[in-house]
Design goal:
384 residues, alpha+beta, Nucleoside Triphosphate Pyrophosphohydrolase, binds zinc ion, magnesium, NADH pyrophosphatase activity, NADH_PPase-like_N, metal-binding, NAD
């Protein structure tokens, strides 16, 4: 693994200069929008327009995706968007039309649909500016259907299902755009007084039309923890909301007034009864479904911490400790989190290499082989 763990996480990858300075200059934004190199990522109901590829059929993001797939996002010129999107104007939009809609999803799309979001300037493979500005817009149903109909091979794709098929640049703009549009979708009205809000600053600020206060996008921090016991086994849990053969790391939202480390210790104790010591940060990944930032830790069970191990029965219905051999055993009967998740990345970090597709068990590389050379030193064991 040549890349540092945090920057290799599928949704943490990016190839863009977010160009903060230009956001507050409406004339400059208009010039960029009108420039020949401007490109637009188009979103619809949380999906992005892809020119090549589609969501994998029959796969929901857990376990292994179908092999040998490729997806490329469609970055359109502004003049390719069509009539419904021409009026998108980041500095004069308001959300009054949303009041007339009854369906929540439609209302949400309408609120986000009036935003011309400036994502930044694309960078090349050496992180040099390409000069190509990228925007994102959300289109309504009718326009969404037309955009696909006009483009052979095009489809609407789900970030969670195609993230690992995208290059760094596409993964970055999709993640950034989706996170922001999810915020716009629920921000048509001021949370303080209920008045409508307008969009400013290239789509990065909304302002209350009555109080004049600025409203900023929010990110909800959640901790996710790889817990290792004295025998180097990893603790995985099965969530009550999942099919029962699905196992992943334990995770939970950070509460207000709480540090990340305290949240990790509290969440693990609540969900499993296990007491962990000294959680150590390993990396983070945005998870815009709708607004999370997953903050990853590794931790060891405290000296007397394993005795009380029990699933909370509410959120977590089963807990199992896995050795490295057990986790790649094709007969273990479990499904692990899919490759776009930080959970999968932390499991592989503990394992010491990629967990190969489970339908080809003869190819599985056990730690005794090549992967052992790259196995990271488990956290909490005294390095540093
Ligand atoms: Zn207000």
């Amino acid at each position: 693994m040549s890349r540092a763990f945090p920057s290799s996480l599928p949704l943490s990858r990016h190839r863009i200069d977010r160009d903060h300075d230009t956001r507050s200059d409406p004339a400059a934004l208009d010039r960029l929008w009108s420039s020949e190199r401007a490109r637009v990522l188009v979103l619809h109901r949380g999906l992005a327009l892809a020119s090549t590829g589609s969501d994998p059929e029959g796969w929901d993001g857990f376990g292994e995706p179908p092999a040998d797939r490729r997806t490329e996002l469609a970055l359109l010129r502004p003049d390719e968007l069509g009539a419904d999107s021409d009026s998108a104007d980041s500095d004069s939009a308001d959300s009054e039309s949303a009041d007339n809609d009854s369906a929540d999803t439609h209302t949400a799309d309408t609120a986000a649909g009036q935003v011309r979001l400036y994502l930044g300037i694309l960078l090349d493979a050496d992180d040099r500016p390409t000069g190509a500005p990228v925007f994102a817009v959300t289109v309504p149903d009718a326009r969404a259907d037309a955009l696909v109909a006009e483009r052979p091979g095009a489809s609407w794709v789900n970030l969670r299902l195609v993230a690992t098929e995208l290059d760094d640049s596409a993964a970055g703009v999709f993640t950034e755009a989706l996170a922001m549009m999810n915020w716009h979708a629920v921000s048509s009205h001021c949370p303080r007084c209920g008045a409508t809000t307008t969009v400013e600053t290239g789509g990065w600020v909304r302002r209350c039309t009555v109080e004049g206060v600025e409203l900023f996008p929010r990110t909800d921090a959640a901790v996710i923890v790889g817990i290792v016991d004295a025998e180097e086994r990893l603790l995985l849990g099965s969530n009550a909301l999942w099919e029962k053969n699905r196992y992943s790391l334990l995770a939970g939202f950070v509460e207000p007034g709480e540090s990340l480390e305290a949240a990790a210790i509290r969440e693990i104790a609540e969900e499993s009864g296990v007491v962990i010591a000294d959680p150590e940060y390993v990396g983070s990944q945005p998870w815009p479904f709708p607004a999370s930032l997953m903050v990853g830790f590794m931790a060891r069970v405290a000296d007397d911490g394993a005795a009380g191990e029990r699933p909370d029965g509410d959120e977590i219905v089963d807990l199992r400790w896995f050795s490295r051999e057990e986790i790649v055993d094709p007969d273990n009967g479990i499904l692990l989190p899919g490759p776009s998740s930080i959970a999968r990345a932390i499991i592989e970090r503990w394992y010491g290499g990629p967990l190969l597709p489970r339908n080809t068990p003869s190819d599985v590389v056990l730690p005794a082989d090549a992967a052992a050379d790259e196995r990271p030193v488990p956290s909490g064991s005294g390095e540093g």
